[in-house]
Amino acid sequence: MPHSFSVHVYYEDTDLAGIVYYANYLRFIERARTEWIRTLGVDQTRMKADEGIVFAVRRVEADYLAPAKFDDELVVTTAVEQTTGARIVLRQDVTRAGEALFSALVTIVALHETGHPARLPANIRRLVH
């Protein structure tokens, strides 16, 4: 089931033209992923402490479709596209009143604290499958 996260565009999110600076969409979808993981009941701090595993973005394919502007109310929707033993692929869309503004396909992997690849913990695979 897709997860929704609301974002309010602040002045600091915009560029000289008054539109959301392109890199800030990555910040918006990062926040949404963090909240999505939290709603699954995953405590990332505990996972790091107990298992020595953290999540990292491996790949992002992004499409900028229309500009968002100061004071817009946006919704970031996160949905699982695919899971394997080592990765989760998510579709993340940013909309304003139903209008598509940004879309990304994001590949998340698990890493040991040393930076070496790790299998996704079994409980996480069950939660997102």
Description:
- The chain contains 3 helices and 6 strands; from the N terminus they run βααβββββα.
- The chain has helices at residues 24-39, 44-51, 122-128; strands spanning 3-8, 53-64, 73-83, 87-96, 99-112, 117-118.
- The mean pLDDT is 95.
- The protein is elongated, with a radius of gyration of 16 Å.
- With 129 residues, it is an alpha+beta fold.
- The longest helix has 16 residues, at 24-39.
- Strands 1, 2, 3, 4, 5 and 6 form a 6-stranded antiparallel sheet that branches.
- It has a single domain, classed as Thiol Ester Dehydrase, Chain A.
Largest sheet, in brief, is: 6 strands, antiparallel
Query: Cα-atom Rg, whole angstroms?
Result: 16 Å
Task: Tell me the count of domains.
Answer: 1
> What percentage of residues falls in helices of 4 or more residues?
10-25%
Class by SSE composition: alpha+beta
**Helix-strand string:** EHHEEEEEH
pLDDT average, as an integer?
A: 95
Question: Within the CATH hierarchy, at the fold level, what is the topology?
Answer: Thiol Ester Dehydrase, Chain A
Low-confidence stretches: none
CATH architectural arrangement: Roll
State the shape.
elongated
CATH C-level class is Alpha Beta
